[in-house]
Each structure stands twice: as C-alpha cells, then as structure tokens.
Amino acid sequence: MRSSQTEANTTLLRSPVKVTFDTNTLSGVVDPDQQFGAPDHVAYQAVHAAVKVGQVRGFFSEGVITLDAIGRKEKAAVLGAARFVSEATSTAPNQITITLGPCWKHVDLDPRIRARIETAREMAMRALIGPRRFGDSLVVRGYGEGFYEPYPSGAAFVAAVDATNALDAAIVARGLGRAQVIELAKFFSERDGAAGEWWPQGLERTRNTAESKKVRLAVNEWADGEALAAHLGYGNDLFCTDDRGGDLGDRSVLHPSHRAWLSETHGVTFVNIAELAERLATTP
Asked: What is the domain partition of the chain in residue ranges?
C-alpha cells in the first residue's frame, strides 16, 4: 500500500505544469535567442526546454492573434472598420431567414508573428478560447484543427465557460479589460454626434496620434483581460507575464493592486519568467 501511495505521489509531482504565457513572455519562450544578452536569457532557455520535454504545457490566449497581432498604428482603424450586418435569404416561398452578426476587417498577420505561433504549435502549445459574447468576440480562423485547446466535456464544460465569462464580467465591472476600449469608443462616437452606433465603430473616429495611442493601450488591456479570463476557465496553474501595468499604471488589470485582487479572490497565480524557471528547477 505504501509503495502504491508513493508511486501516486510521484506521478502527481511529475504532472506537467499548465502555464498561460502572456504575449510579452511567449516570444522569448518560443525563441530564447531573442533574449540573448538579457538578464533573463538563461531563464527563457530553461522554460523553452521545459516546454519541449513536456515538463510544462504551454498555452497562449487567442488574443495574441485577434488583438495583439494588429499593428501598433492600425488598431484603431482595423477594429473601427467592424460593422454589424444583416443578411436576408429565402429558401422557400413565404419564408425569409435573417442572419445578424459582426463583420470584422480581415488583417494579414505579420510574418514574424505567424512564424512565432507556428513554432509554438510545433512545441505543442495551444490557444485558449476566451470569453464569448454576442457581437464583440473575435475568433481565430484559418489555423485548422489543433489550434485551440478543447474545453472539457459535460458538466466540466459548463463550469469552465461559466468561470471564464464570470471573470471577464468581474474585470469589466472594475473598469478594466475591455471596459476601457468600450468607454473610449463610445466617447469618440458621442463627440462626433454618432451616439448609438455599434461601439467598435467609434474607434475609427480618432483624430490624432495621441488618440490612436489611447486606443492601442485600451486594446492591449482588452487582450490582457481576456487572457486572464481564459486562463481561469481552463484551470491553468500559472500565468506568466512581465507586464505590471506599463503606460496604463493602475488602470491595467496586470498592475500589482489588481493582481492582488485576482490572486486573493480568483486564485490566479502570477509568475515572471525567472520565477517560473526557478519553480521548475526545484520541482522533483
């Protein structure tokens, strides 16, 4: 009996650590040479090796492609070009079907980002499905089977989806995540006398580079909020990021004050790349 219990404990200890990598750590994990000469280069090498051998199961948010991959200067124009459209079709006499849905502008990915994602997939890393809301949820297409990590089935599926959407709503309620880009877009619409239009259209109404920068920061914040919600929904162990707020300061969901809330209330455990490497080095 004791031998069986020991074997069970050993198996548990050797279970892969499930880590969600933020955009700012994903690139270095996929290609540690990008960090050559940096203080954390060795840490990136260690985590890269751990992912390749299966000690770490690596994940990234779909927002890496749907939001972060939009060029820094193009975020306002690309997202602002979205339209909510309707289409009517008739398949039989006296029968009309009306389909409503969002139409987002297609953007070609930067070849460097595409290569990064392909390398991540070769390392068995998978994308996480984020919150799903009617209208403003962007979905990755064109990558085929195996791009997204599937949700569990049955009751576990319901629980995972509920957890993702609940954290998304809680982040927005604190004025974080996508709340900031929606607020900004609505301000631009109202300023131009177009109150009531679908909120992404307001992003197309920026008037100068300063406003475009505000949109860029707000879109990045949107992506961070969705990454955290997806991380929680999938029940991953660690959220690996070097972001602590940046230009947004305490208006960022990754600022230390909000990290404390996410940790204490929602059980999110944050690590930077050096802390993750240290944990892996001390894991039996």
From this structure: 15-282
